[in-house]
From TrEMBL:
<dbReference type="GO" id="GO:0016787">
    <property type="term" value="F:hydrolase activity"/>
</dbReference>
<dbReference type="InterPro" id="IPR017853">
    <property type="entry name" value="GH"/>
</dbReference>
<dbReference type="Pfam" id="PF02449">
    <property type="entry name" value="Glyco_hydro_42"/>
</dbReference>
<protein>
    <submittedName>
        <fullName>Glycoside hydrolase superfamily</fullName>
    </submittedName>
</protein>
<dbReference type="Pfam" id="PF18120">
    <property type="entry name" value="DUF5597"/>
</dbReference>
<keyword id="KW-0326">Glycosidase</keyword>
<dbReference type="InterPro" id="IPR040719">
    <property type="entry name" value="DUF5597"/>
</dbReference>
<feature type="domain" description="DUF5597">
    <location>
        <begin position="400"/>
        <end position="543"/>
    </location>
</feature>
<feature type="domain" description="Glycoside hydrolase family 42 N-terminal">
    <location>
        <begin position="48"/>
        <end position="197"/>
    </location>
</feature>
<dbReference type="InterPro" id="IPR013529">
    <property type="entry name" value="Glyco_hydro_42_N"/>
</dbReference>
<keyword id="KW-0378">Hydrolase</keyword>
Length: 579
């Protein structure tokens, strides 16, 4: 029997979150850090989120708040929050800010912070001062810290089960937040140094040797070390395989060491909570930049986007190149998730769907139009469980515009297979006076997106206008079987054309195009609003899905009408004349 509480399941549509027995498409946003601590504050947030088609909110539950004194727990505020979310029909993904939030321990309760003997801190090398210094981070080698955190987390999960299991308001839990060490590549405390000198645990070494599906980023980062792994793994018991020997001297060894010990710490916490209530669990990632120059051109400080060196980004966090260590050490986590602000969006989607068993969930991303356009790629092309723009309680309008369309067409999305979907986006084109597209904050993406569906190729380009082409984003879903030429087209600012791929085809065009609207009185079925042709299909050449304010560039004829429902059904056809 499948579990009755929210859980992940493999379906023809991909890995899906099952809530109350049904696959559910999360349309989430992440709240500011302190928002979920106050039912009064949230009382004005719930209706605003509903108005922007957000059906799930990510918010923090902190260790300091639920266990202010050791062994004394207070769930008063959280209980009210869950009840209020339920009454508004909004799901929750709870973020456990326990030992670690952004690599430090500021959310640990005071009784933990004050007891540095029982809960020893990380020590880092301060280059400017030429000496070691203590930072506000519980060492990931601190067994007492892991056990205390695990006890609190287990209490939290037991409480959620008690008040919510039959309702499924809380659907997932994030274990800690952006783990890793900032300010140095590894913990330099005496306890950590001793562990470092003991070398790489043999069970990890043997796992890396035996695992046939190592992440491509691991192979790139440690390519020169791989040939020696098997020999070292088969060395006699008791031989010390140093971190430098296995992963390379300096920061590569340091980062692998930190990844091993942080992931073990997180597993201690996650497994304790999962034993009490087995909701889907994940941890999130502050990503690194392999090439810092990609961030330089945005004008943002490099620390906000991650650098190329461990310690500038959190050393040991679940970045792709050490994710194999995390997957080995933390089996209680159902997946690893990227916080995605400035990176190449599609590359990160690829990295966090490898090796095919890690469903994509983006717990933090940009909430502006730049970020909102990209969610189509995550949902349609990479089957995302959800994408969560950060800070939605103070700005949900941009994502709400996209979520409205995703909500209206979620039935078709959930019923389609991965091979039947594609997502895409087009950013604003830079002004001619602009030296580059740096203002977009990351690569602008493709100017043409294509995908082959059976025997027909779908080609997506910016919407045709006589003036300046604008931004756009959306998705295409193949309707029917794998050979169907019928498609649901959703979004704005683009056009769709087709190319038949069978031998002998001499013409490909549009047979029919129908603008659709949602029938709210009939289970949100789509019904035809208008039959499109002529200017709307460039006389059968391509279906145009305009944006709200097409730029005609002074051309006096309005041949590109503004967007209305942003949903259409189009059927292509081909002619083969035998010559």
């Amino acid at each position: 029997m499948p579990p009755t509480h929210p859980h992940l399941a493999s379906t023809p549509s991909g890995t899906r979150l099952i809530v109350n027995g049904k696959p559910t498409l999360l349309l989430p946003g992440e709240l500011h850090n302190s928002s979920l601590s106050s039912p009064k504050y949230m009382s004005t947030v719930w209706p605003a989120m509903k108005a922007n088609h957000i059906n799930t909110l990510l918010g923090a539950v902190t260790w300091e708040m639920i266990e202010p004194a050791e062994g004394t727990f207070d769930f008063t505020a959280l209980t009210q929050i869950i009840l209020d979310a339920r009454s508004h029909g909004i799901h929750l993904v709870l973020l456990w800010f326990g030992s670690y939030k952004n690599g430090i321990s500021t959310y640990a309760p005071g009784w933990v912070k004050r007891d540095h003997v029982r809960f020893p801190r990380v020590r880092v090398w301060d280059v400017e001062r030429g000496e070691h210094r203590t930072i506000e981070m519980i060492s990931p080698l601190c067994g007492e810290g892991a056990q205390a955190d695990a006890r609190a987390f287990a209490k939290l999960m037991a409480h959620i089960k008690e008040i919510d299991e039959e309702f499924g308001t809380v659907v997932m839990v994030q274990v800690e937040n952006e783990t890793g060490l900032l300010g140095d590549s590894r913990d330099r405390s005496p306890m950590a140094q001793e562990a470092f000198e003991r070398g790489v645990p043999l069970e990890l070494l043997r796992h890396l040797c035996a695992h046939e599906n190592l992440h491509p980023r691991f192979k790139e980062r440690f390519a020169s070390r791989l040939p020696a792994l098997e020999t070292l793994a088969n060395a006699p018991e008791g031989k010390v395989n140093t971190w430098e020997t296995i992963f390379g001297p300096g920061t590569p060894a340091d980062e692998a060491f930190m990844a091993y010990h942080i992931s073990r710490y997180i597993e201690t916490v996650a497994s304790a909570g999962k034993a009490r209530y087995a909701l889907p669990m994940y941890t999130n990632t502050w990503l690194n930049f392999d090439d810092p120059s990609a961030l330089d051109m945005t004008g943002y400080p490099i620390v906000v986007g991650g650098g190329a060196r461990p310690g500038i980004y959190p050393s040991g966090g679940p970045c792709p190149h050490v994710s194999d260590i995390w997957r080995f050490n933390a089996p209680s986590l159902d997946f690893l998730a990227p916080d995605l602000y400035f990176h190449d969006y599609e590359r990160v989607c690829v990295d966090y769907t490898f090796p095919g068993t890690n469903p994509l969930f983006i717990p933090e991303q940009r909430r502006d139009a730049h970020g909102a356009r990209r969610v189509w790629l995550a949902y349609a092309s990479y089957g995302a469980l959800g994408t969560a723009p950060f800070g939605v309680d103070t700005g949900a309008e941009e994502i709400g515009r996209e979520y409205k369309l995703l909500s209206q067409t979620s039935k078709y999305h959930l019923e389609s297979t991965p091979s039947q979907r594609m997502g895409f986006f087009f950013d604003d084109l830079p002004d001619s006076s602009s030296p580059s597209c740096a203002s977009s904050g990351s690569p602008r993406g493709k100017e043409q997106w294509t995908k082959i569906f059976g025997n027909i190729e779908v080609i997506i380009e910016r919407a045709f206008v006589f003036g300046k082409p604008g931004p756009g984003a959306g998705m295409v879903i193949q309707l029917g079987d794998a050979d169907s030429y019928r498609f649901l087209v959703v979004g704005r600012g683009f056009q769709v054309r087709f190319r038949g791929l069978e031998d002998g085809i001499t013409f490909t065009g549009i047979l029919q195009a129908l603008e659709k609207e949602v029938d709210e009185d009939n289970d949100r079925e789509l019904r035809t609003l208008r039959v499109l042709n002529g200017d709307e299909t460039r006389s059968g050449e391509s279906l145009i899905m305009p944006n709200e304010e097409p730029d005609y560039g002074g051309f006096p004829i309005a041949v590109t009408i503004p967007a209305r429902t942003c949903i259409a059904e189009v059927e292509a056809y081909t002619i083969s004349e035998g010559y």
